[in-house]
Amino acid sequence: MKHISILALNDATMTSIDGSLQLFSRINDFLKYSGKAAFYTIEIVGLTAHTSLNGALYTINVDKKISEVKKTDLIVIPIICGDFPKTLKSNEGFCDWVRAQYQEGAELASLCVGSFFLASTGLLNGRKCATHWAAKNEFEMMFPAVNLMEDAIITDENGIYTSGGTYSYLNLLLYIIEKHVGREMSVLASKMFEIDIGRKSQHQFLIFMGQKKHDDTAVLKAQQFLEENPDKRFTIDEISSKFGVGRRTFERRFKKSTGNSLIEYMQRVKVEAIKKQLELGTKTVNEIIFEIGYNDINAFRRVFRKYTGMSLVDYRKKYSQAAQSQS
């Protein structure tokens, strides 16, 4: 039997705490129905007897305070909300306990942006981590020593699990359940809770938001210019000369400030523009590609798949209202 401690972090989301509790509890029920013993003991643990959640919208009563939990097998770190630096400050009291439990063999499971708390313990330094794609820029600024996997739904390294966007934490919990009690129980849980098991990528959900929290004025102007002109074709020389910087210097500064090369940034801006057109569903794929400034349709198809993990046609089928109404 494994003991699970779900952290009642200050300003955690109620849904991620309750969702974790419900999913692990149902595994016990499934096992009992099949004549087997329950596998999990599940407790919500906190610094104090009562914790404010969702920006004080809710208050939760914990089963135990962490000072009362001497040994646990899996620590679930819920999604946190609000101002990350402020929220991390309010949860510093958990850090020593989490580090000590990990050193004693506990597994750690971070749900979505719960990764900010886990990273604040230092346990993610030099390790892979997933988080919500929209939090990528802020996470990289706050925790440069962590190897952030932008596309990943799940990471698993040395007993530390992390997950991507908000409800992807359910995929992580199914993954952990499969490791603990087997594929059959994981599949059963996915069917009962109607979770799309086996998702591996955030690419199809990602909306590109260029890193703009930097102080390079020329790079910021270039970013704005490119985003305002997604249908135009520019060479790197044209962009660098427009903002009065030599090509090699500008390329180096752009990569340092944004995390993308100029070519990558231009491609990603165009991909976002095309995604919006595909969602509208009023033009053919080839028309959209030509209008965005690409003459080589096959080349852009490869670029689109690189950043979304989907073909242009599959993306339209999935997200276009017009395609949905025809199906």
TrEMBL record:
Coiled coil: none
PANTHER family cross-referenced by the UniProt entry: ARAC-FAMILY TRANSCRIPTIONAL REGULATOR, TRANSCRIPTIONAL REGULATORY PROTEIN
Name listed for the protein in its UniProt record: Helix-turn-helix domain-containing protein
Annotated SUPFAM superfamilies: Class I glutamine amidotransferase-like, Homeodomain-like
Domain HTH araC/xylS-type: 220-318
Keyword DNA-binding: yes
Family matches, as InterPro entries: Class_I_gatase-like, DJ-1/PfpI, Homeodomain-like_sf, HTH_AraC, HTH_AraC-typ_CS, INH-QAR
Superkingdom of origin organism: Bacteria
Alphabetically ordered keywords of this record: DNA-binding, Transcription, Transcription regulation
Pfam (any one): HTH_18
Organism whose genome encodes this protein: Chitinophaga hostae
Keyword Transcription regulation: yes
